[in-house]
Each structure stands twice: as structure tokens, then as C-alpha cells.
Amino acid sequence: MSVDRHAHDGDPVSPATSAGVPVVRAPKKLRPRHVMMITLGGIIGSSLFVGSGNVIRSVGPAAVLSYLIGGLLVFLAMRMLGEMAAARPTVGSFMEYAREGLGDWAGYFVGWLYWYFWVGVIAFEAVVGGSILAGWFPSVPDWVFSVILLLVFTATNLVSVRSFGEVEFWLASIKVAAILVFLAVGALFVLGLWPNASFSVPHLWNAGGFAPNGWWAVFGGVAIVIFSYFGTEIAVMAAAESEDPAKGIRQATVTVIWRILFFFVGAVLVIVMVVPWNQLPDPKTKAPFAFVFGAFGLPGADLVMSAVILTAVCSVLNSGLYSAARMFSALAEKGLAPAVVARRSRTGVPTVAVLVSTLGGYAAVLVNFVAPESGIFDFIMNSAGLVALFVYVFIAITQMRLRSRMTTQQQADLKLKMWLHPWLGILVIVAVVGIVVVMLISGESGQTQVWTSLVAVAALAVFWPLVARKLERRSAAGLEDAPEAEAGVLP
Q1: Do residues 333 and 342 make contact, with C-beta atoms less than 8 angstroms apart?
Q2: Are 117 and 129 in contact (CB under 8 A)?
Q3: pTM of the predicted model, to two decimals?
């Protein structure tokens, strides 16, 4: 059964007229408010609320610079992605652009690595969410809550893209509101304008200096925070399924810099000014945001922040499942994954891709609880560690390659342009290489992420010849669009 191939990019599907063929409804698209809130809150997760504590404890107040440098690299990568996406919106996003610019092999590697990364994140967030809920209801095992969360957000993603957007809108709204309150109260506190507070800006340099662990630690911090920003590209993918893709993509890419400055750099700056950096507790015992909220003297700070962190976890779980499913489906549509994965429901949801992506999450959650000592769960998380860096390199190389193929007129007609082409793209690539070097020399944790990630890449390389031969056979037979035709629409 074949369908209009443009439906896979979120366009309405033409009703079938043949007897016995079900009529396919036009998928409900994301509204501007959905895209706006996904754009605002898409990258705010437990990595900010909890992980920022690890960065501050290892770098000191100069962690602000680590977040600023990392944010700048992400901003440049998003600008390059925005140039490509504004010219040709597609749900497959950077995977599809890599395939067009560099070849099928590039789309294969970046797409599968991206899907693998989000399957790991789905499992991780389910585990974190389960542990938070188990803390509230200690009589129920963690794994039960983890499975419940997976079931809830699987159902949310299966209904329609609009249902995903609605849930994400409210989850992101809570996260954004919490940070706005944090920044507002924090600013008053550090200026001594909050009850029982005194001017505390000197905390930036009074506890051993601004960079107490040396300036090299700042660059080591960049290697950590760069992963906190991964997920920004979800806004571009979601915009491709919105009512106005071009406007949504421009909004997502143009506003990313002030979102990074406001939410990440601003929040970390408040933390290191409210309390001396060396007095922050271990995030495993208390999240930095909860600790600072307690310093404000706000009632129920611990409970409120636990609820906010749970909201952030659920938001990342929801958007991670969306991203994994869309990328998996896009891979299948191009013949880079089994054709059945591209099958969609009448509402345009890649149903098989959603279900398969969650199966990986269930498996990882169960392994973590049944055999935590096996190390399998840790390997999955570590081996996805370099995916963000791989993606940024592919985005940079692809943008430079596609721009070089354009005529002068085509370049002039671009709705969104990368500045100082190609030098800023080269800067991103050099910076990524530098981050990998820092990871290799920074200690066992960084080295483990590098080597296990290379193992994942090697595993994909083993299967690439099989996929390449399959693509050659399809091309020779004139069946380039076979995956889309075979996939069809689920009844």
C-alpha cells in the first residue's frame, strides 16, 4: 500500500480512492505555541537542575565560562542546521541533509547514532524518574514507576504529534516558570534585596579565586556541559511538523543563543553567587537548585524542586521518544533501516518506530534493575557519549558542502544564513576535536565515553556494507522510494 510520500514530512495525506483502502486523515500538526515552548524548554533537563552541580564543583565559579563556551559552539551548530532546515524543512533534519550532502553512509551513521543516543536517554530518564517517585512512595519499587513512565509517554506519542506537543507544552512551561522564579529571586538575593540576604556577588572570587582549579578546568568543563545542550535540535525537528515550518525553524535557531544565556549561563551564575562554589553539596545527595532554593528560605524547597526535576525528566523522556521515533522512521524511509519502521498511523505517527524505540528503553531499564552489576546499562550510556559531538561535526561539514554546491543566486535567496562561511564551521569542527582531546586526557570517565562510543561506531560500520548493497539493488531496480511505499499506513 503506498501513500503520498510527502505525508512523511508532516504534510496532509491524500485520501485513497481505491476500494477497500482506508481513507487517511491529515495529521494534526504542531501549533506555534507548541513549537515556541519546545524551543524554550526543550534543552532544560536534569543535566541543568542536577548536573550543573558536578560542573561547578570541578571548575569553580568559572563554570559560567564553560557553559558560555559550550553554548557558543551549540549556537553555531544550530545556525548551520537552521540554514539547511529553513531551505528544506524535513523531519529527518540533519540525517537527511548529511545523506544529501555527503552520501548515504553519512545519513546512515549519524541517524543510527542519534537514535541510539535517545534510546539510552529514554532509559536513563525513566530510571531517574522512577527513583524520584520511589522516594515519594517508598513501598513501590523503582522499576515499577520507570515502566509506568515509559507506558504513559509511549501512549502520548502514539496518539498524534499534537498530543506530544500539548504534553510537552505544559511540561516545558513548568520548567521555564521554575527557572524564571529561580533567576528573579536569585538576582534579588545576591544584591541583598531579599529578606535575610546580603550582597553576595563576591562569592565569584572569594573562595580561592574565579578559577580555583585552573583555567584548564574551564575547558574540561566544556566537555561536560556540551552534552547538557544536546537536544536543542529537537525544536528544528518539531518545527518541520508544525503549521508553519519555515517560521518555526527560524524561531528555533535565531533564539537559541539567548535561551542558552538566560537559562543555562544565567542559572549557573546565580548559583555561584548565592553560595560559595566549594559549599555546594554532592548532587547525588542534593541538587544544586534545591540547595539554593533552600538558601532563599522558601518553604518546601526540597519538595518543590523534586517535583520540578521530575517534570524535567518527564519532558526529556517525552521529547526523547519523539526524536528517536522520528529519526528511526526517517532512516527507514530512505532505506537505511527496515521498511516496516516507516509505517505510520492515520494520524501520521510513525507507530512502529515509537514502539521499537521504547522497547530499547524497557530493556535497558530492566537490565539496570535485574543485573545492575553487569555494566550493560553503563555501557549503553557511555557509548552514546560522543553522539552530540559527532552530530555537530556532521552538521558543520554538511552545511559547508551543501553551500559550496549552490549558485550565487541560490546563496542570495537563503532565508537564514550562516555567518563567515566557512570559517565558523571550521571553528566548530576544530573545537569538537579539542573537546575529544580534553576528554581523553581528563581522566577515566572521559576516556571511557570516547572508547565506548567508538565501539558503537565500529558496530555500525560492520553492518554498513549490507545496507549499501541493499541500497544499490533498490537503485538499480528503480525502487529508491520502496521503503516508503512498502511501509504504508497502519489501519
Answers
A1: yes
A2: no
A3: 0.87
